[in-house]
Amino acid sequence: MDVGGFDTEWHYGPFAGSEIGAPSPTIASAGRANRAGVSFLYCATNESTAVAEIRPHPGERVSIGAFRIVRDLRAYDLSRSQLLHYFESDKFLDAYVPFNTLSILINKTITPAERSQYSITQLIADCIRQLGFDAVLFESTVGSGTNAVLFNSGDAKLLPEEGKVFLINKVEYSFVPEQTINSREEYVEDYEKRLEDEDRK
Fold this sequence. Notes:
Elements: E1 2-3, E2 6-7, E3 41-44, H1 47-52, E4 61-69, E5 75-77, H2 90-107, H3 118-130, E6 135-139, E7 146-150, E8 156-167, H4 184-200
């Protein structure tokens, strides 16, 4: 923009203080790990994942912050398979099955229309917290990094000088074709053929 012979540059200030971080319990909505009214701090291991997790639209600006962990934390890692820690015996493998099930459930892609399934992942997070863990790690379904949910936001300190603002240029999608129904007749014919094959056996 040119104003009186001078070029105008817009500079944006990232959110700071209470504007960023864990929301107040009075406004905390239900998330993958928290129930409505429960305040957890959602973080990501890289900038691109932090931005993508907000699900922004092209043309929007996103503010992210950098946090430093202030003490040693016990984190329950469901972000990747832990099979290498369990393969040594059948007993260990039996113990791995429920652990792997938790990992599958909390890492599952959940669409906005399926948010009711958050009750399952919230229960998993509640159990992990009751076991004395300070955080839970799980894969991001929209980014390349890992999500980290801290049960106590006081365990992380905002680094105000490292906040950034990003302009979203475009959002890309990856997709695969699903099986589609062509015509009812094809399915009837296929079913009848399968019955005939069974009769011949």
